[in-house]
Amino acid sequence: MAIVIGILFLGTMSAYAQDAVREEAVADSGDTAWMLTSSILVLMMCLPGLALFYGGLVRGKNVLSLFVQCFAMAGLMSIIWMVFGYAVANGESLRGIIGWSSDKLFLNHLFNHETGTTGIALLSGSIPESVFVMFQMTFIIIAPAIVVGAFAERMKFKAVIIFTTIWTIFSYLPMWHMAWGGGLFHHWGAIDFAGGNVVHINAGIAGLVACIMIGKRQGFPGPSLVPHNVPFVAIGAALLWVGWFGFNAGSAGVADSTAGMAMLVTQIAAAAGIITWAIAEYMVVKKVTAVGLATGAVAGLVAITPAAGTTDVMGALAIGGISGVVCFLGATKLKHKFNYDDSLDVFGVHGIGGIVGALLSGIFIREGAGDPGFLQFWIQAKSVIVTILWSGAVSVAAIYIAKAICGGLRVSEDMEHTGLNLSEHGEEAYNTDS
What we know:
About 70% of the residues lie in helices and about 5% in strands. By secondary structure, the protein is mainly alpha-helical.
């Protein structure tokens, strides 16, 4: 009898242990729902948010080219991430610079070959890894889509594709690994909650290098280079703003207090960016413009991105406010002083805003989230310097390669005069005959 009782007891404990394992392998439904929602929000930032924002800022004869490029980024970068990007970014670290895991090629690890089922039980924290992969896929889409605004209205479409592909593979993926894949920045202890280095500084430097090497648009600077549809700009900025809650709060990976605080400080920084940009604009031109308010909001959003998980509301107010002023000066004074044609102020807003945010992340740290001071500021500065140098070097190489393959980077003068809608894509944005 004792033996029978013992067997029953062991069987019960075994079943309990198996149930416990199954329980651990089940994703949290709340966290999963939030990350699914965040993925949708970040994708919306590119399509239609950035497409409308950029499309409205260019002249009507080029608006479709920006829509085409944003759609192209959504398609091309998704495939790159699926085929090998995730394996490189989130693989086993190679000297802290890049990763590699062959089992993650084609996301093959998400399929359970023993059971013949998809890897729903493969978790990243408390969510299925498939959801984490999808969330980060939206990031690899938005990063090169930001870059294209710097050389809008003059670069060949095939050159855009080649340049952004090379830059994504050799700059975005290593930066992702350094910050979030256990690489160099992670070991330093650098703060980059949602992509100050990985996305914004990285993209801003690429845009600056590319626009300088490609050269200025015809008529720059001049009164003809004005936004053709300001309501598009405002609607696009509004969609970016809403999508940024997924970008920042979603980077918590869970639906918890960190995500809640990230959402709150994101809103405060955007508001502060609007106010300080408007004040600076009024002091200079005696007007407050819709384009200015929209751009100020984006400047605040960019700057709070690296600090969203570690700062408090007063820090967000300071970071967003400082960024609004500094980005205004970068997008207006700096560009014209050095006479480079950053068409849609990619460096002026994303590059400068990202640098401001990354540095201030080391100062405005809430209690319990880290130790503010010179050491953290220096760590932030080191990560910024590495990002600038790395992205700059890759961008120069990518431009030369694209130029060699395409027989030049720019469309002809006649094509530029006609506009890229018709000359590159064979379509008109507005049919005035009907």
